[in-house]
Write a structure and sequence with these properties.
Distance between the termini: 38 Å
Number of strands: 10
CATH topology of the largest domain: Spore Coat Polysaccharide Biosynthesis Protein SpsA, Chain A
Number of domains: 2
Strand order of the largest sheet: 4-1-5-9-6-10
Largest sheet: 6 strands, mixed
CATH architecture of the largest domain: Alpha-Beta Complex
Strand content: 15-25%
CATH class of the largest domain: Alpha Beta
Order of helices and strands: EEEHEHHEHEEEEHEHH
Number of helices: 7
Length: 233
């Protein structure tokens, strides 16, 4: 049985307003992820979960299925990915969709490789785990160069350590999640397991240039430049 792909895309982005349908390299951002999922021929269905009618219309244009409109309560700033995925899975089962493995793709990661999408599912099948998440090595490190303010307004390391690390290379490896997520739908529903708690979660490491996410205007412009450079080459 082929996996099913779910792309969650709400209309109320704050960091980059309207980012899911902003044009980047001649088409809406979400279209890059939809096209990649469809062209992979890896999925039985490519589903977009959204509350936004414009996102739904554009998603349909590029070949995605919109079997339901997401309730607005699952499209707020406080709605979690768990809320969105639980709703989507239950709704799809109620509509007669037949699937076991789900791959969540974030439409803000336009350079994600098909082989990495397939790799997460392959790893899920090999490991006795609840989730496989796509990650890339992060040079910003809470053990070394990421700080927060203490109660007196002075900085402290986010992850205080007894031993001082002289360089970032000496520090423990840390990773950035990038929205690529594979799991067995029925296991998650039956056991009521939440992704946000990261229970029995295994990482699938990918290169940073493939996993870069767009969460800010700076990153949006950076990705536009990457498109121009790479496609020119």
């Amino acid at each position: 049985m082929k996996p099913i792909c779910i792309i969650a895309a709400r209309g109320g982005s704050k960091g980059v307003p309207g980012k899911n349908i902003r044009i980047i390299h001649s088409k809406p951002l979400i279209a890059h992820t939809i096209s990649k999922a469809i062209n992979s021929k890896f999925f039985s269905h490519v589903i977009v979960s959204t509350e936004d009618r414009k996102i739904a219309s554009i998603s349909k244009k590029y070949g995605a299925e919109i079997p339901f409109i997401r309730p607005k309560k699952y499209a707020t700033d406080t709605a979690s990915l768990d809320d969105v995925l639980y709703h989507a899975i239950k709704k799809l089962y109620s509509l007669g969709y037949n699937f076991e493995t789900v791959v969540n793709l974030d439409c803000t990661v336009p350079f994600l490789r098909i082989k990495d999408i397939k790799g997460t599912v392959s790893l899920l099948e090999k490991k006795k785990c609840h989730f496989v998440v796509g990650v890339y090595r992060q040079h910003l490190n809470p053990y070394y160069n990421i700080v927060e303010l203490n109660g007196k307004g002075f900085v402290k390391l986010v992850k205080p350590v007894k031993k001082f690390f002289r360089t970032r290379q000496e520090s423990p490896k840390v990773y950035q999640l990038n929205g690529l997520l594979a799991f067995n739908a029925k296991t998650i529903l039956d056991k009521k397991i939440q992704y946000s708690n990261l229970p029995k979660t295994v990482i699938y490491e990918i290169p940073i240039e493939s996993g870069v996410m767009i969460d800010t205007e700076f990153e949006f412009e950076a990705v536009k430049s990457m498109f121009k450079k790479w496609y020119k080459i």
